[in-house]
Amino acid sequence: MEVNEKIASLRKLMKEKDIDIYIIPTADFHQSEYVGEHFKARNYITGFSGSAGTAVITQKEAKLWTDGRYFIQAALQLEGTVVELMKMGEPDVPTLETYVKQTLPQGGTIGFDGRVITMAEGNIYKKAAEEKNGRILYGYDLIDQIWGNRPKLSKEPVFALDIQYTGETTDSKLKRIREVMKEYGATAHVLTTLDDICWTLNIRGNDVEFFPLVLSYAIITMDKMHLYIDEAKLSNEIKENFGRNGVIFHPYNDIYEDICHISKDETLLIDPSKLNYALYSNIPENVKKVEHANPEILFKAIKNPVEVENIRKAQIKDSVAHVRFMKWLKENVGKIKITEMSAPDKLDEFRKEMENFIRPSFDPISAFGEHAALAHYSSTPESNVELCEGSLFLTDTGAGFYEGSTDITRTYALGEIPQIMKDHFTLVAISNLQLANAKFLKGCCGMTLDILARKPFWDRGLNYNHGTGHGVGYLLNIHEGPAGFRWQYRAGEIQTLEEGMVITNEPGIYIEGSHGIRLENELLVCKGEQNEYGQFMYLDTITYIPMDLDAINPDMMSQEDKRLLNEYHKTVYEKVSPYLNDEEKEWLRKYTREIM
């Protein structure tokens, strides 16, 4: 069925259930940012394939809310459908919650699948309905009823991550979690987020494309961990190891029934931004609840010394692969056929030469020319174009190694490019270098430092419509809270920057119909000197790939900007050249040469 037909079928079901507004988010049952094929309901009903967005359907209107990363892409993909794009954060665009409140009629009904809506969101919708003397219905997955041949839940096997990669045992992690539970006065902790569970148990899987996660729920008590999972995915060795850590197995969906029978003597630690509304609603009213962020979120964001050492190794490996790819691209564009879709395949060939490579860490963004103006463009057989000289090529990709995950963006000049592209590229490079050079007192968060990246843009009346950086998981989610760089407040991303955090640095510029540029390195938060003013911190760039000198305009750069770029390129050569042959070293020397 086409999008308009699907929406018509949905409206028919809504009428049968007496539902006035039906809400379809991006999430799975675990509030994952990226979801498995089974959970792509919003994509199915609207045709918009971006990783973030929420659809709201009424009998008369169909709207999609998404953020600035996807405005251009969403507009293209919604063209010809009845779905209207709602650009989040733009003037005169109501928030989704405001729209729901204004649109719901007196005595009306808001419907959603409570498993894919958070507790916090569900409570907002419940309050909005009550204000109109209406109700919510959260027990219907209406999309499932119209989605023929819906993909099944994954049956992929689980694999264990050895202590040489994790740096900490499950037993140690459970002890730390239980200490926080005690601080909060909790006797049990309900856990639904896949990365938190995988981190705690030192396991990984393949239930979400690109992201090594395992579909599961957990309830941690003071002496046991109840794991809700398809047990067929677990090897005997993994089960025996779990048994030694007090892990008890239950069928995946049984948690919804089990939570109904939690003793009134328990006090549950729950994260309202992570727990889904259906599960929350099944908790008996006489059971006490304490609401805090999952302690695992901060624990896993602060990498231990073993993880840091491994991550540095992973970055070196991916940097070597990128340098070889950059050389290959520069030397072969226009001579052999290279397309948006074949280019990342070639980069992955170089990655596969590296030891312990598992797979790409997310769906590649490979965008030539005007396609790069779509910040999260995804090439398809229909949109795929051949690379040629005269414009820019943006590649945003990542690799999953046993030593950790990477997330790296580079933009390359193919042949001679227009001056405006060079100027924009240089601006992005200046922005990246300014943030990377930050020195700050402990206690700062990403909102404090984001101005360092924005200032070169704002001084020129320019901006980029996305965050400057996000945390990176260790072979988990590539976007990981609770720290990040952004200028606007966003709940869950104002955590103090702590030693051991890994955060991306990825400013960009996007000119619709012409070009897009982004340069992304990963930064490690480190301790600096301590003196009478306090503990100073700094950011160590751990990605080592040239910023294409063919696209740099030195005349735009101050002496300080040039110094920072030259120092970065000197480090790139020192880190990467030992792994290259003589020809590759000579090529790298050219692209890391000093500019004056």
Helix-strand blueprint:
Layout: H1 3-17, E1 21-24, H2 41-46, E2 54-57, E3 62-66, H3 71-78, E4 83-87, H4 96-103, E5 109-111, H5 119-131, E6 135-137, H6 142-146, E7 159-160, H7 163-166, H8 170-184, E8 188-191, H9 194-201, E9 203-204, E10 217-221, E11 225-228, H10 236-244, E12 247-250, H11 255-258, E13 267-270, H12 277-281, E14 288-291, H13 295-301, H14 305-332, H15 342-352, E15 357-360, E16 365-368, E17 391-397, E18 399-401, E19 404-405, E20 408-414, H16 419-436, E21 439-441, H17 446-458, E22 469-471, E23 480-485, E24 502-505, E25 508-511, E26 515-518, E27 521-531, E28 534-541, H18 559-576, H19 582-591
Keywords:
single chain, alpha+beta, 596 residues, Creatine Amidinohydrolase, six-stranded mixed β-sheet, 19 helices, Creatine Amidinohydrolase, Chain A, domain 1
Structure description:
The chain is an alpha+beta fold and 596 residues long. The protein folds into three domains: 3-146, Creatinase/prolidase N-terminal domain (Creatine Amidinohydrolase, Chain A, domain 1), CATH 3.40.350.10; 159-300, Creatine Amidinohydrolase, Chain A, domain 1 (3-Layer(aba) Sandwich); 305-591, Creatine Amidinohydrolase (Alpha-Beta Complex), CATH 3.90.230. 34% of the residues lie in helices and 21% in strands. The strands form eight sheets. Strands 4-3-2-1-5-6 form a six-stranded mixed β-sheet, with helices on both faces. It has a six-stranded mixed β-sheet with strand order 12-11-10-8-13-14. A four-stranded antiparallel β-sheet has the order 21-28-27-24. Helix 3 links the parallel strand 3 and strand 4 (83-87). Helix 14 (305-332) packs across helix 15 (342-352) and helix 16 packs antiparallel against helix 17. It is globular, with a radius of gyration of 25 Å.
